[in-house]
Amino acid sequence: MKRVYVVEDQTILRDLIIRLLETYPDIEVAGSTGDGQMAVEEITKVMPDILILDIMLPNLNGIELLRQIRKGEHKPRVLVFSAFPSKSTVKKLLEAGIDGFVEKDANLSDLEIAVEKIVAGQTHFGLRIVDIMREIMVNPNQSDSLDELTPRERQILQLIAESCTSKEIAQKLDISVKTADTHRANLMKKLDVHDVAGLTRQAIAFGLVNPPQNFD
User: Which of 49, 88, 140, 161 could form a disulfide with 200 if both were Cys (CB 3.0 to 4.6 A apart)?
Assistant: First the structure.
């Protein structure tokens, strides 16, 4: 029996994934959430065998979630189920140790095949993801300015892009408002931007958040 934890912020998709998993006699749904930070806390407690993970999550994106999970001794197998990502995102997911990737515009049968392979200890990547993986192999040392940010700075950049104020960031991360402001200033300096809109554009470019409607 394999225990699976689902992290997906769209409720209807999360429910559909859970219903699919419940059709397998050798799978037990160990839990689910739509919040990245909550997922880290719960995964540490329930210790599932497999994690089905979206990338774009509130409070903590999928890449940072994986980085935090991998710091512990328990390392579940990971199947990413998300929208088509950038090359930079795929590279970071591979570095974080994923075992498969299915795009959200794939057929249901593709997700079923991926789940079965991951449960069996194999890997599964969609064809477009495989193409990106080949590109990464050709240029393995290519990097971007996201690599220059600390894990805390990446988390704060995401929260800023999610329209959180310094006070709200301080409350979410249990830090002082002054510390949140300092991180904000350091981000602007490192990324060479001068306002929240610029930070938001960077977060979107890095794949930390989805672009909001009507964002220019």
Answer: 161
